[in-house]
Design brief:
It contains ten helices and 13 strands. Helix 2 packs antiparallel against helix 4. The strands form two sheets. Strands 3, 4, 5, 6, 7, 10 and 13 form a seven-stranded antiparallel sheet that branches. A six-stranded antiparallel sheet has the order 1-2-12-11-8-9. It has one domain: 4-Layer Sandwich (Phosphatase 2c, domain 1).
Length: 310
């Protein structure tokens, strides 16, 4: 039942610009706010071992990375999550025409997602959204994280691992008020009930976090199909593997499958390093300067410009 899988990997020096180019490649190099940082990233999604449909969608196009987990039943959740990632993919962030991505810009973009889902699905569908954009703040690269719902963003940095996002869920509210422990929340019967979502309900407000990029950062964006199967300790252990992001991403999904994969499982792993550190770690490595690889999966099968998955 879990034969529908999407995965891939890419490396990109998002600050380097060919001297003779005035194309979209050059515009993306400027607007990605790399400031000497090199990104490597891998991604994947799997329908899991129980569900018949994959309602997760994702976009991994530097400088934006995001996972959306649709909800609403047959053909509803996949529509909502797909609208979400298509809106991000079509935005000026990935087009390289938005040189200074701000919280206000993302708030407007997320509001567009909410309105489009309500218009197309009539209030019968919703989606979570968790993601990050690499931005420039005070002449330095920063991660601008955003989140609505219970999909998650994690960061492993300088040996310290932690969840960046905060779940918008009933069990998280019970944990915050001391009525549940973290362990109890993992098995609580209402652990999948979210308190914020795009396209459904009254509360669609996103949370934001701005954090400086550290050399060696490793980020994980995932649906609750992964975080619900693996503990934070298990996730940290896999993220700590000294391997390429795609290998790490594949192992995270495989671990969730071994644990039962009762929901769709989606993950994006992003590594950041200074160009100097990356070149020192891989002397003589092939130049990875290129336009951003368009890692993209829409659960409804319709991608950018009418693309359909095979």
């Amino acid at each position: 039942m879990h034969d529908r899988q999407v995965h891939g990997s890419h490396a990109i020096d998002i600050n380097a610009v060919p001297a003779d180019s005035h194309s979209a490649r050059e515009r993306e190099g400027r607007s990605s706010a790399g400031l000497g940082n090199r990104l490597r990233y891998g991604f994947g999604t799997d329908v899991g071992l129980v569900r018949e449909l994959n309602e997760d969608s994702f976009v991994a196009i530097a400088p934006v990375f995001a996972v959306a987990d649709g909800m609403g039943g047959h053909e509803a959740g996949e529509v909502a999550s797909s609208i979400c990632v298509r809106t991000l993919e079509a935005s000026s962030i990935t087009a390289g025409t938005e040189p200074h991505v701000t919280v206000e810009y993302l708030e407007d973009l997320i509001d567009q997602v909410d309105q489009r889902i309500r218009s197309e699905a009539g209030g019968d569908a919703g989606t979570t959204l968790t993601g990050v954009v690499l931005v420039e703040e005070s002449a330095a690269p920063h991660w601008l994280f955003f989140n609505v719902g219970d999909s998650r963003s994690y960061r492993l940095s300088s040996g310290t691992f932690g969840q960046i996002s905060v779940d918008h869920s009933e069990v998280q509210e019970l944990v915050d008020t001391g009525q549940l422990t973290e362990d109890e929340a993992r098995t609580h019967p209402r652990r999948h009930v979210v308190t914020r979502a795009l396209g459904a309900g009254d509360d669609t407000e996103a949370d934001f976090w701005l954090l400086p990029v550290e050399d060696g950062d490793r980020l994980l964006l995932c649906s609750d199909g992964l975080s619900g199967e693996l503990t934070d300790d298990e996730i940290c252990s896999i993220l700590s593997i000294a391997a390429e992001p795609q290998e790490v991403c594949d192992e995270l999904i495989a671990a969730a499958l071994r644990s039962g994969a009762r929901d769709n499982v989606t993950a994006i792993v992003v590594d950041a390093a200074t160009r100097e550190a990356d070149d020192a770690a891989t002397p003589g490595a092939e130049d990875t300067t290129t336009t951003p690889f368009r890692g993209f999966f829409a659960a409804d099968g319709i991608g950018p410009a009418g693309w359909r998955r095979p």
